[in-house]
Amino acid sequence: MIGRAAHRALIAALFLFLLAPVVLVIPMSFSADAFLVWPPSGFSLRWYTAMWRETKLMEAARNSILLACLVCAATLVLAMPAALVLARGRFRGREALVALLTAPLLLPTIVLALALLILFVGYGLIGSWPGLLLAHLLVALPYGIRVLMTAVSTLPPAVEEAASSLGAAPWRVFRRITLPLMLPGVAATAAIVFLVSFDEVVISLFVVGPELTTLPVAMFRYVESRTDPLVAAVSALLVLLTLSIVIVLERAVGLGRALGK
Question: Options 3.30.1700.10, 3.40.50.300, 3.60.140.10, 1.10.3720.10; which CATH number does 54-258 get?
Fold first, then answer.
């Protein structure tokens, strides 16, 4: 009994440690002060109102949303067939191919960013939509492949084999049997990839330009020159966005089922 209580207390302390920055940011977003101070001397919605008047932040937010949607769509198109082949294929070099496709998850982000900067400068991709899309896709694709491989590995192959034995063509089997069974994994992949792309800041700092930027980069540049709670208000909304996506995914398909557990 004491061991169980200690275990729960340790978990609670760990959650508190991890969520402490969020606990501080949300009250500060309602601060009435002109600077970031804790605790706030008063509470107001002034910074949520001021946020909508910051044209650079709003434009960057639109860019981030559009970019995350494009990365999400491209990842699903590329990761779905790759996951099917890697999860079910039994061929020489399969493990090496999986390691290669998921290698960006193991490399430091700053190394990837510097490599992309050197590569993109030669092709004129810095500060362009194709460059941003390729850079974010490099980071997001390994997540998509990993999650979809897990989802595919949990599918019952007997259902697809039964459809094939009854004369269904491979494309028809995929469209009518495999894809519907994969939908929880597809939903989880879409949510994870969207958030990974939307929150990416290190690689974006290296490949954005003066006229094309993303919200995390715009926030980073904002806090370099200003110390008001406006950035806390933006951060609170981003926390709400992330939490909403997780809740919708949980209510729609269940996180465990979506991740193939």
Answer: 1.10.3720.10
Does residue 177 have a pLDDT over 90? Answer: no
pLDDT score at 255: 57
pLDDT tens-place string over residues 194-239: 999 998 888 998 988 878 889 898 888 888 887 888 888 888 888 8
The mean pLDDT value of the chain amounts to 82
pLDDT at position 256 over 60? no
Nearest to residue 71, comparing CAs of 180, 195, 188? 195
How many other C-beta atoms lie within 10 A of the C-beta of residue 70? 16
